[in-house]
Design a protein that fits this description.
Blueprint lengths: L2 H5 L1 H6 L1 H17 L2 H17 L5 H49 L3 H6 L2 H43 L1 H7 L2 H11 L1 H27 L1 H6 L3 H38 L2 H13 L5 H18 L1 H19 L43 E8 L9 E8 L4 E5 L6 H9 L6 E6 L2 E2 L5 H5 L2 E4 L10 H6 L9 H10 L3 H6 L17 H13 L9 E5 L7 H15 L10 E5 L11 E6 L2 E6 L1 H7 L2 H14 L8
Parallel strand pairs: 3-8, 3-9, 6-7, 7-8
Antiparallel strand pairs: 1-2, 1-4, 4-5, 9-10
Length: 620
């Protein structure tokens, strides 16, 4: 039932120092916890003996000091235990959350497409919290409840074994009940977490589409949908609370049932002289301290059952936990340390600067779940340092070609080679330092322009020269100079504070800066200029060719693949590839294909007609 604790061993190793210190403090505290009750009983006996003339005032004073010392021996370690174990628990939650996010980022794109983002958010945020409760109960309540209760039970056995065995008869019955209800607790916890995932997914979707909802007057329907999911989440949460809340008084009642026997049998022992008044008071104090905490033993089992259910939902997301090897000395003792902070999670692989050759051999590509392939046995060789334009009708396979080149989805058959190496053999780090990519829709993050181009949250001014060069090549320099804070201008979530054309050019600057501080060996642009005018598009491509083309130094040259339905940039290309129905229909230079009067020529003529057509109402 608690297998998740065994699987979480790497996370416990990361905080082994804090767990050790906290456990030592917990053992001292919960072993000494019986002393105040015992020493209180002795102090009472000394006071009664003083009244009878059988003790001195000094004896009573020392008994009182012993009681104070016993209390301090309990309370001082309590502070250390709370600090070390609580901070260790928070570190574990942070590491699990980071590993879950790291694991999702490494998922195949097909898996990401099948999984709602809201569900992933609910697991990474909410389920980690539920898991954290289970881990906290295990690391803290092992001492504060189990050892605590065991210490009192042993002390009671020392006082009177027979009476103690009678008083503790309900304890094993309560534990059997906790084990029997475990399936209910785990099942209800899982259903509550699933309802939370559905609610989070709906809120994320509806907020992302709020403009559409307002435009079509469907905001009220959206509210009703979220309200219904909120109600279901509340009901399932309440079912968990009702079950756990209903079990608590049952556990408490069972634990305290033995007090009747203690009062009955204990009072007879005092009358018979077999137990002193102070001893009886001490025994009662020990028992009440036991039952005030003992009921949490079965509750601890229920919390671990909930943590097990949460971990089962997190397990598919988790990347392998980071090893403690390579961490600073004594890192596991530091309350604020997280693994991987002082070492790079994925250091860049150095490579020789310059362009790379690209080759596709008999590549067949199919989107996950699609009935037919988008590319069929396509072969293409792109020399290093060339500028290649790819075009074709809608649905011809342009975007599919970029995805095959980038390895975003695996190809069904065939091979993609980068400088003669199969793409599948390149690690994610190698690809990141080799390929720059601009998709059709440039996704921007909330934050500054600098952070969106460099994709580093703590970008510094040291890289300004390189970033400004990428901005210049993206025809964004004038815009940046006009921004109030230049590269540090905040652009808002999804880049809402800048125009569509500016967002696309920021995405282009990011693609060029992908391999910073050098330039990528391969730059793949998928319909990159749909939000800019034709003149700006031609200017950008011309500047890219000038900066990375045959006239540039060898170490600065870049292989560029531009997939676009617009042809304004294609006269600058070394080669043009025309796709139709997932196959190559034509190849050649722009001039050759126009002269051939084939598919490319027809597309070119159609676009020329559209560009030259007068605007409605214009004077010709």
């Amino acid at each position: 039932m608690f297998n998740f604790l065994w699987e979480m061993r790497p996370y416990f190793r990361q905080v082994a120092g804090q767990l050790f210190l906290g456990s030592v403090a917990g053992i001292v505290m919960n072993t000494a916890v019986v002393l105040p009750a015992i020493l209180l009983g002795r102090a009472i006996d000394r006071a009664l003996a003083l009244e009878r003339g059988e003790a001195t005032a000094s004896d009573v004073g020392w008994a009182a000091l012993a009681f104070v010392g016993g209390t301090l021996l309990t309370e001082v370690p309590r502070m250390g235990k709370r600090w070390w174990l609580m901070t260790a628990n928070n570190r574990i939650k942070s590491s699990v959350r980071a590993d879950a996010f790291r694991g999702v980022l490494a998922w195949p794109m097909a898996d990401l497409r099948r999984t709602p983002l809201g569900d992933l958010m609910a697991r990474i945020v909410g389920d980690v919290e539920v898991l954290g409760v289970g881990v906290r109960e295990f690391t803290i309540e092992t001492w504060d409840t189990v050892l605590f209760s065991l210490s009192f039970a042993i002390a009671m056995l020392v006082y009177d074994p027979g009476l103690t065995l009678l008083a503790l008869i309900p304890v094993p019955v309560a534990m059997i009940l906790a084990h029997a209800t475990g399936r209910w607790v785990a099942g209800r916890t899982t259903r509550a977490r699933e309802a939370n995932a559905d609610l989070t997914s709906a809120i994320q979707e509806h907020l992302a589409g709020v403009r559409v909802l307002r435009l079509f007057g469907r905001a009220s329907a959206s509210v009703e949908r979220v309200a219904a999911l909120s109600q279901r989440f509340a009901q399932r949460n309440l079912s968990v609370v009702r079950l756990k809340g209903g079990l608590q008084p049952v556990y408490t009642t069972m634990m305290t049932a033995g007090v009747l026997l203690i009062v009955w049998q204990g009072s007879e022992r005092v009358i018979a002289g077999a137990m002193t008044v102070g001893g009886f008071v001490a025994y009662l104090e020990l028992f009440f301290r036991f039952v005030n905490r003992g009921y949490r033993i079965p509750q601890l089992a229920n919390s671990l059952q909930s943590g097990d259910a949460a971990y089962a939902r997190l397990r598919p997301l988790l990347a392998p936990a980071l090893s403690v090897q390579g961490e600073p000395p004594w890192a596991s003792f530091h309350a604020g340390h997280l693994p991987g902070v002082t070492r790079a999670l994925a250091s860049r692989v150095s490579r020789t600067a310059g362009p790379v050759a690209l080759s596709l051999r008999e590549v067949t590509f199919r989107y996950p779940g699609a009935a037919t392939p988008v590319l069929s046995r396509l072969s293409l060789n792109i020399p290093a340092g060339s500028l290649v334009g790819v075009t074709g009708p809608v649905g011809s396979g342009k975007s599919a070609l970029t995805r095959a080149i980038l390895g975003i989805y695996p190809v069904e058959s065939g091979t993609v080679l980068i400088d003669g190496r199969p793409l599948i053999e390149l690690s994610g780090t190698e690809r990141a330092g080799l390929i720059g990519y601009l998709p059709q829709e440039a996704f921007l993050f909330s934050g500054s322009l600098r952070e969106n181009i460099s994709l580093r949250p703590n970008g510094s001014g040291d890289e300004d020269q390189f970033l400004m060069e990428t901005v210049h090549l993206s025809a964004l320099e004038e815009d940046v100079l006009d921004f109030p804070d230049g590269l540090d201008t905040e652009i808002g979530e999804l880049g809402i504070r800048i125009s569509g054309g500016q967002r696309q050019r920021v995405g282009l600057a990011r693609a060029i800066a992908a391999a910073a501080p050098s330039y990528p060996g391969l730059l793949v642009l998928d319909d990159p200029f749909s939000a800019v005018d034709v003149t700006t598009e031609a200017r950008i491509v011309a500047s890219l060719r000038q900066a990375f083309g045959p006239d540039a130094p060898p170490e600065r040259r870049v292989t560029i693949v531009v997939c676009s339905h617009r042809l304004a940039a294609f006269p600058h290309a070394d080669m043009v590839v025309v796709l139709q129905d997932g196959e190559i229909a034509e190849t050649g230079t722009h001039a050759e294909l126009v002269a051939a009067n084939g598919l490319y020529a027809r597309i070119h003529r159609a676009q020329r007609v559209v560009e030259m057509a007068p605007v409605d109402g214009a004077v010709t």
